[in-house]
C-alpha cells in the first residue's frame, strides 16, 4: 500500500471529526515514515485538523522551531543514516526538558532496504543510543566553549 494512501486515510478520519461541531478530539500530530515502489522513502507530517504534508526531514512537538532551525543548518539530503541520527540526537538534546539525557528517554530507529529489497525496521539498543548522546554532548560542549571564548568568557 502506498505510504501517502495510508496517511491520507488517517487524515480523512481525523478531518471528519472537525467537520461536525468543530472538534479536534485526537489533538495529535503524527510523523509517518515509509517506503513504496512509487516514490521510494517518504516522510509525512499530519496535524490534528487532518492536513498533511511531505518532507525530507521535519520536527514536531514542543520546541519544534528550535529543532527546525538545527535541521536547516545540519541536515543535508546526502547525509548517511549515521549522520542523520546524529542530527536527530542533537535536536533532541537541545529541545528536551531534561538536564541529563539518557537512552531511557530517547529511542532511535532506522528504516532501510536490505539486499533482497525488503524493508527492515531497526531500533537502536541503549548502548548505541548512549554512544550518539555522548558524541553529540561532547560537540555541544565544545561549541559552548568556543562561544564563551569568543564572548570573552572563560
Task: Please describe what this structure looks like.
With 154 residues, the protein is α+β, with helices and mostly antiparallel strands. It has helices at residues 3-19, 64-74, 81-95, 126-150, and strands spanning 30-36, 40-46, 52-55, 109-113, 119-123. The strands form two sheets. It has a three-stranded antiparallel beta sheet with strand order 1-2-3. A two-stranded antiparallel ribbon has the order 4-5. Strand 1 and strand 2 (40-46) form a beta hairpin.
Mean pLDDT, all residues: 90
Approximately how much helix is present in the residues? 40-55%
Count up the helices: 4
Sheet having the most strands:
3 strands, antiparallel
Strand count: 5
- Estimated structural class: alpha+beta
Radius of gyration: 18 Å
Beginning-to-end CA distance, first to last residue: 57 Å
Principal-axis shape = globular
Strand order of the largest sheet: 1-2-3
Low-confidence stretches: none
List the helices and strands in order.
HEEEHHEEH
